[in-house]
Amino acid sequence: MSIAIYLEGGGEGKNSKAMLRLGMDAFLRDIKEVFRQKQLRWKLVCCGGRDKAYRRFMNARTEGEAEIAVLLVDSEESLSASTPRDHLRERDGWDFEGVDDDTIHLMAQTMEAWIVADPEVLNSYYGHGFQASSLPRRENLEEVSKQDVASALDRATQNTQKGRYHKIRHAQQLLEQIDSAKVRQRCAHCKRLFDTLLGLAG
Length: 202
Hints:
By secondary structure, the protein is of the alpha/beta class. The protein is built from ten helices and four strands. The N and C termini lie close together (11 Å).
């Protein structure tokens, strides 16, 4: 069996996409290892914009690029419906006719919610000048808007030696270090992604 995950993000450059792919691959390392042990093929594809991720995902299903294709995109805002399928249909107008619900996944409301779920790693990574008190304290980070997460990260990192959080320059290294268990505890859709992928691996 083979699985391909079509991920929003990475910008339009080949190098920036490769950096995000390395970071997300590391973040999902526990799942990837299960697939490896069971001799199942694994592919993670960074697609740039969310519309491109959707198109690549839908094309992969029809062209047989993998036995299982999975979509992973930001929800961009609080969920407007009870399922990722309905949210993306209502918000983006995407048609998922014939698509299994287990293959549609969200980073709610943004991938950066996953990053701020582990303040200890952020503090270690940014070092002197990092302001942990600026990070969202809400246990359920999916209730924090995309804009508020971005503003919090900006405030927390503005006085550090590495400078303000930058998606291309910093996300890869942070994704490689953050504890996925902490993210799953504070981001229910991340837990759903892990549970579903592990279920697909059997």
